[in-house]
C-alpha cells in the first residue's frame, strides 16, 4: 500500500473488524491519521451494507465511516479463514473489533491467541457494557445504552417522556474513546515494545457527559429532571433556546458580563440592576420570567438580525440550524472538514474528514469506501504472498470473497 508519509500513523497497519458505527469510526480516525486500515468483513458484508434494501442513502454512513480503507472478505467461521486472519494479525500493529464479548474467543482469535502470536499487537475491543461485570452480555445498541446510561432520562421536556438524542452520540463518543485507547497503547508500545488489550464500554464512555445532571443529583439527593433546552443542573440562566421570527436561537450566559451584554443588546439595561436578575443564582430562581423576557424580545427579530446584534454585543449564542444548512456550512467547507463528493452510488453528497487536524500534514485525499471484498486479492497477495490460483480456490471454497 502507498503510505501517506506526512501523517502521524504512517506505516501502522490496522485490521478493522468494526461494524455499524462505533468500530468503523475508530478505524476511520486511524485511516485519516495515515494508518493502513484493512476492513475485514464476512462474505455477506457488515450490517450497514444491508440497509441498501431500504434505500441506497441508508448506506451513506458506510461511505462516511469507511473512506480511506481497503476492504477484504474473510469467512472467520471456517478454519481456513481463521488461519488467514492469524497470518494477517502477525503482520499488523492494531486489531479493532466491536463484537459482543466472547465472540472473538469463540472464533479462536481472542486477545490471548493473537497476543501469543504477535506480542506487539494492540488489541482494541469496543463493547456495550465492558468485557467484565454482571451486565457484560446485555445487548447494546446506541438507543439501549442511551436508555441504560441515564442519558435518555434527562433528555426531553419536563412534561414529556424520556427522549433519545437525535444523533447516535453513544456510538461516536465510544468510537472516539476507542481511537484514543488505541493511539495511547501505540505510544506505550514505543517504550515497551509490547501491545496490550484496550477496551472501551459504550456505557462508561458517556457517563462523564452527564456531569451537569449529576451535580443536580448530589445536590438534591434525587434524580435529575428533564430540563428541555435549559442547563442540566438548572444552575445557569439564561441558558435556553428562544424563538426567532424565522426559527430559533440558543443563548446562554456564562458570566455576569454576558448577562450585561445581553441586556444591552435587548436595550433593557435596567434588568442588570433588578434584584430578580442580579446574579445567575437570582435569574435561576426566576428562570421562567427571565426566559419570558428574552423570548418576547427574540421573537420580534429574524435569526439574521439576532446574529448581528448578539455578535455585536459579544453574547454567546448560535442560531439553530437544520442539517441542510450545516452540510453547506461555509466555515467547515473552507477548512476542508466537509467536502462535496461525486459518489458513484449517491451522486453529489457532502462527506466529512476527521475533526482531528495534524498541522504540517496535508489534508487526506478522500478514497471511497471499499466495495465488498474489493481488495481481497490485493491484500492477501501483498501481505501473505497468496498467489492468484490459490486465491481462486479460496474464493471457490467460500473462505474469501
Describe the fold and architecture.
- The chain has 2 domains: 263 residues, Crotonobetainyl-coa:carnitine coa-transferase, domain 1 (Rossmann fold, 3-Layer(aba) Sandwich); 82 residues, 2-Layer Sandwich (formyl-coa transferase, domain 3), CATH 3.30.1540.10.
- The strands form 3 sheets. A 6-stranded parallel β-sheet has the order 3-2-1-4-5-6, with helices on both faces. Strands 7-8-9 form a 3-stranded antiparallel β-sheet, with helices on one face.
- It is α/β, with parallel strands linked by helices and 401 residues long.
- Helix 1 crosses helix 7.
- It is elongated.
- 39% of the residues lie in helices and 14% in strands.
- The longest helix is centred in the middle third of the chain and has 24 residues.
- The mean pLDDT is 95.
- The protein contains 17 helices and 11 strands.
Amino acid at each position: 500500500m502507498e503510505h501517506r508519509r506526512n501523517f502521524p500513523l504512517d506505516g501502522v497497519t490496522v485490521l478493522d473488524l468494526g461494524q455499524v458505527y462505533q468500530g468503523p469510526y475508530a478505524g476511520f480516525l486511524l485511516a485519516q491519521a495515515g494508518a493502513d486500515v484493512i476492513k475485514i468483513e464476512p462474505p455477506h458484508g457488515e450490517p450497514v451494507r444491508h440497509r441498501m434494501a431500504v434505500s441506497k442513502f441508508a448506506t451513506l454512513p458506510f461511505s462516511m465511516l469507511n473512506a480511506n480503507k481497503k476492504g477484504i472478505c474473510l469467512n472467520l467461521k471456517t478454519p481456513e479463514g481463521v488461519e488467514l486472519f492469524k497470518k494477517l494479525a502477525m503482520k499488523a500493529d492494531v486489531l479493532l473489533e466491536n463484537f459482543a464479548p466472547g465472540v472473538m474467543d469463540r472464533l479462536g482469535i481472542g486477545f490471548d491467541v493473537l497476543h501469543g502470536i504477535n506480542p506487539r499487537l494492540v488489541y482494541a475491543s469496543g463493547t456495550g457494557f465492558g468485557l467484565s461485570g454482571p451486565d457484560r452480555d446485555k445487548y447494546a445498541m446506541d438507543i439501549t445504552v442511551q436508555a441504560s446510561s441515564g442519558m435518555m432520562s434527562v433528555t426531553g421536556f419536563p412534561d414529556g417522556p424520556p427522549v433519545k438524542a437525535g444523533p447516535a452520540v453513544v456510538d461516536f463518543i465510544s468510537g472516539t474513546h476507542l481511537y484514543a485507547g488505541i493511539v495511547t497503547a501505540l505510544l506505550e508500545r514505543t517504550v515497551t515494545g509490547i501491545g496490550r488489550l484496550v477496551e472501551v464500554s459504550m456505557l462508561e464512555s458517556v457517563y462523564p457527559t452527564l456531569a451537569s445532571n449529576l451535580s443536580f443529583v448530589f445536590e438534591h439527593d434525587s434524580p435529575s429532571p428533564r430540563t428541555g433546552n435549559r442547563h442540566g443542573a438548572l444552575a445557569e440562566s439564561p441558558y435556553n433556546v428562544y424563538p426567532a421570527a424565522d426559527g430559533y436561537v440558543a443563548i446562554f450566559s456564562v458570566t455576569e458580563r454576558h448577562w450585561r451584554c445581553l441586556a444591552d443588546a435587548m436595550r433593557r439595561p435596567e434588568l442588570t440592576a433588578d434584584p430578580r436578575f442580579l446574579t445567575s443564582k437570582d435569574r435561576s430562581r426566576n428562570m421562567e420570567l427571565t426566559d419570558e423576557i428574552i423570548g418576547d424580545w427574540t421573537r420580534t427579530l429574524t435569526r439574521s438580525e439576532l446574529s448581528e446584534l448578539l455578535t455585536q454585543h459579544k453574547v454567546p449564542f448560535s442560531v439553530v440550524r437544520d442539517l441542510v444548512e450545516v452540510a453547506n456550512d461555509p466555515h467547515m467547507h473552507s477548512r476542508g472538514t466537509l467536502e462535496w463528493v461525486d459518489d458513484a452510488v449517491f451522486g453529489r453528497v457532502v462527506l466529512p474528514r476527521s475533526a482531528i487536524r495534524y498541522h504540517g500534514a496535508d489534508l487526506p485525499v478522500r478514497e471511497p469506501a471499499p466495495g465488498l471484498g474489493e481488495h481481497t486479492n490485493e491484500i492477501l497477495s501483498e501481505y501473505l504472498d497468496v498467489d492468484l490460483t490459490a486465491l481462486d480456490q479460496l474464493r471457490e471454497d467460500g473462505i474469501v470473497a
